[in-house]
Amino acid sequence: MAAKAGDNPDSLMSLCTVFCLKNLRRTMCYTGERNKLCLRPDVFLPSEICDKLVNVYMDLVYTDSNFEAQDGFFQLFSDPRSTRLTRLQLRDLVRDKDVEAIKKQVGKLSVTLICICVCNVNESLCIFINNHSQLLLLLNADTDKDSPKNGFNRLRLLNLGGMQAVVDVEALLKPLPALTSLDLSGVYLPRPAFLAQWRDRLASLVLYNVDLSEELISTVVQMSRLRHLDISRENQRNSKFKMTRKILTSIVQSLGNLVSLDISGHIMLDNCTVPQFEDAMGRPSIEPSKSSIYPFQELKRPLQFLGLYNTTLCNVTHIPAYKVTGSKNEEQVLNAIEAYTESRPELAHRAINQLFDIARIQHCSQLLRALQLVIAALKCHKYDKSIQVTGSAALFYLTNTEYRNEQSVRLRRQVIEVVLNGMEQYQEVTVQRNCCLTLCNFSIPEELEFQYHRVNLLLLKILEPARQDESIQRIAVHLCNALVCQVDNDHKEAVGKMGFVKTMLNLIQKKLQDRMCDQVMEFSWSALWNITDETPDNCQMFLNCNGMDLFLDCLQEFPDKQELHRNMLGLLGNVAEVRALRPQLLTSQFITVFSNLLDSKADGIEVSYNACGVLSHIMFDGPDVWSVEDPERDWVMDKMWDAIQSWDVTSRRNINYRSFEPILRLLPQGISPVSQHWATWALFNLVSVYPSKYCPLLVKEGGVALLEKVLELDSSQPETKDMARKVTTSMQTMKND
User: Considering the entire predicted model, what is its pTM?
Assistant: First the structure.
């Protein structure tokens, strides 16, 4: 059997890193004075582990709603004698005092790295940061007398992309001669010629959304060592610079070491593609000589990466690159999501929207990759509304029945986690609807059980009375109902304590005020029926929250709604099973209502059957507790007998029993023969119509022995004994078969 998509397990390193970060004081730390987080004195962490800890910590803080940031975490890495840092990616969530802690290590760390660089030129300190004040804090770090000026003369990778404030970039970068990789996305460059300082060193230069000029381009083409150049734009608005065939040709000819080029978002002023008839010739090729784009025919070899997103160039046939971003097909769209998710959410958002159309209208052929990329985007941009809207919509189509068999349990759990993250962060209607619809693609409650408490809390929050969107209400109530169906009583009790019962009753109250019996009303009663099953505490909550008044009001307001009546009576059957609560049902008004419902033909026999079940449990308490003068107990029992005899014992049922215990307790007794008869009829019907499901359950719970006792009791009625005998005979026949 082939492995399903996403079955590869996390590495041991990844698992251990996450465990340690979630259990710092139980693993490598202890609590010092004033509750300070301190590294254990016997712990030394090499750079591979330190880098992993810090960067995974940042990811967890940013993407995991259940992960709490640890005050003093960065102080753990302030001493280079016990920790080593080489590659950091600091986000906006990092505070100045955290940077202060890292600053303490920078000087000594740089000295160490200089020594290492003598024998390994690839070893260096790399910093990705988009908060200019924190960067200045680092660059102006005090150092000890043995350190070179400010400890950063070996800094090789620097990302200033997205810097909000206007700073003198030239002055900022001048003391950093060793730079080989520089990201200046969105940075204002009034005098770009200063970049020539690194023309013999820079291997990577990113100028995304930088206003290009002839001076800047002429400086860039001097950088003969460049392997990666990004001069792309989000769009053409407000751009004075126009890309020409001549400029593109100059870039290709001057930068012979290029392996990666991104010109997304640019419109070519003059035609730089071959004629259409020539483009259509032969199978798609990545050979530069066959390129449909004239300037790229000058390439010595195919590029590893070529960004053509939001350009017309992505539509040609022959593109000399192994990986191309664009919107022509699924491969280009997935490449775009992969390339732009981390630092360009505005482009990732567009690409995910295009993937949504592919999954909705066509067919997604790279399901695993698509899901992983969308999950990564949703995690990375938890606070970006546009990503959350398009990503959650794409997940709905990528997890539907068509693709389900290709997905592993692990992958589907990752989907659930990012969906719940979105529900937590955004109360906006579209995100909530998309997330709820996506959850409907899963087997409930089985696939959601690992997040059971969390998902119920989120759904109940959606169903707060202030929420008026009907479609979300309907989906959320459906999910709530499914979540409390077929789960153990501990789960139901826990959900009840979250306010589940009161929330459902509030919804019912609102629908009553609007005089509307729709799916929300019916699902709410169904959910209450499920959550009160064998859970006395939830039954008590129902009564305490005036549930019986709402029952009567609904019965009066919607006399012809059969599904509604069935759900309400099923719920009251659960309440009646709790002996301590039955006195609250023993009123003239309630007994009269239940007695009248015995004559109901709604939903086959279901309403009449459930009404008789409620009365059977009340009768089981005996005549001594019957405090109602009207109607009389004997009159009600006669009416119950008539109702039971009118039912077809071969009726197919709209009901599901997880246990026969509430029915079985009515068998070995003589205080209420009609209750015994109702219980025996129920068992005979269920084991006759659904033998494979209910015969094993009857045997498991000792029902056969109790039916034999019914046959022995003198108080048992002949009709009851006859039915009990038929059940035991059927069970024996099945056993022999």
Answer: 0.82
